[in-house]
Design goal:
By secondary structure, this protein is an all-alpha fold. It is 74% helix and 1% strand. The protein contains twelve helices and two strands, in the order H-E-E-H-H-H-H-H-H-H-H-H-H-H. It has a two-stranded antiparallel ribbon with strand order 1-2. Helix 3 packs across helix 7 and helix 11 packs antiparallel against helix 12. The radius of gyration is 28 Å and the shape is globular.
């Protein structure tokens, strides 16, 4: 009788353990073989993409067409079957202005006030967000003590809910808040930060930057770390100053990441709502009323709600976002083409 060695016994145990794995793999392979046989090897990619495209169609394309249908109707009823078709009347109502620079001359003055506030917010927030994110990424890319800790500190606000961010800063900036308490301790008079038009606008910009800067810093930091260090060593050997190395090496190689950041920051800035709504509620007055809040209040929050007007405003906002994004991507592509020809 032949003795079974420990090695042979281990091999047998391994074969036995593989039996359920092979059965499971066979169950998975069976539908895949059927898909390949039915649709061909090239059609398998389409089959795999279908679930994602179905989700995209149900939750993105279908709501877009429903929203467009609402923009062509009038009345205060919620359901489309109860609403009357008015054509482009809602769009004409939004553009009924003697001067677009003077919201008071417009039929929908609140809409143009929100547009003006949003434009100023986007201009300031996008500029400052990109500047601060780039500076922070450059600093965090250096050899610092406890560098991982500081990276985590800057990224931490991104993990917070926008509502939580708004509540935290409202607690800090309100009249009986932490900031006024600290100022009073140093002998200064407390100030109503959120009831002042200029300060409330500045608070909206600052809180938005604080809440989201870590995410964009992380994207730029990844781009900085992908730049070969040999380029900087060669530039240093040639006597290139750090400022010139930044403009000639860092910025051109960082441009793809920077373009992604610009597009994401712009989209986020135009759609600003959560933290500002919790922080100021659009006030004082309409000083921090932005386009998304106007759409929300017109369609849902007011007693005389007008879903058609809100839908028309959202369609216009989406069109502006698409145009701005395509312009930025086009400029980035043309720049890459020029760089390639050189």
């Amino acid at each position: 009788m032949k003795a079974v060695t420990p090695k042979q016994d281990g091999h047998s145990l391994g074969e036995a353990a593989m039996i359920p794995v092979r059965l499971m793999m066979g169950l998975v392979d069976a539908p895949l073989r059927w898909v390949q046989k039915t649709f061909g090897l090239g059609g398998m990619a389409t089959v795999f993409l279908m679930p994602n495209m179905l989700i995209f169609g149900v939750f993105v394309l279908l709501p877009f067409f429903i929203n467009f249908a609402y923009s062509m109707t009038g009345g205060t009823a919620l359901f489309l079957s109860d609403r009357s078709f008015v054509g482009a009347e809602q769009y004409e109502r939004l553009f009924d202005c003697s001067s677009y620079l003077d919201p008071g001359s417009c039929g929908e003055d609140t809409f143009w006030t929100a547009v003006g506030n949003t434009a100023w917010f986007v201009l300031l927030q996008v500029t400052l967000m990109i500047g601060f994110s780039l500076i922070t990424a450059l600093i965090l890319n250096r050899d610092l003590m406890a560098r991982s800790f500081w990276r985590a500190v800057f990224f931490f606000p991104v993990l917070l809910s926008p509502v939580v961010v708004g509540l935290i800063w409202k607690w800090i900036l309100q009249r009986q808040g932490l900031l006024n308490f600290a100022l009073y301790g140093f002998g200064f008079e407390p100030h109503t930060w959120l009831n002042d038009r200029n300060w409330s606008f500045a608070a909206a910009v600052g809180v938005s930057i604080w809440a989201h800067m870590g995410f964009y810093t992380l994207i730029l930091l990844a781009g900085l770390q992908a730049i070969p260090k040999d380029l900087y060593e060669a530039a240093e050997m040639d006597g290139t100053r750090p400022a010139r190395a930044f403009w000639r090496i860092t910025l051109p190689l960082l441009m793809p990441n920077l373009l992604v950041v610009v597009v994401l920051v712009l989209i986020r800035a135009v759609q600003i709502f959560d933290e500002v709504y919790v922080l100021t509620g659009g006030g004082p007055g309409t000083s921090t009323l932005y386009l998304t809040q106007y759409i929300y209040e017109t369609g849902f929050a007011t007693q005389l709600r007008n879903p058609g007007l809100a839908a028309a405003a959202s369609i216009l906002m989406g069109a502006v976002l698409v145009i701005l994004t395509l312009l930025q991507l086009g400029l980035g592509r043309s720049r890459d083409n020029k760089g390639g020809r050189k």
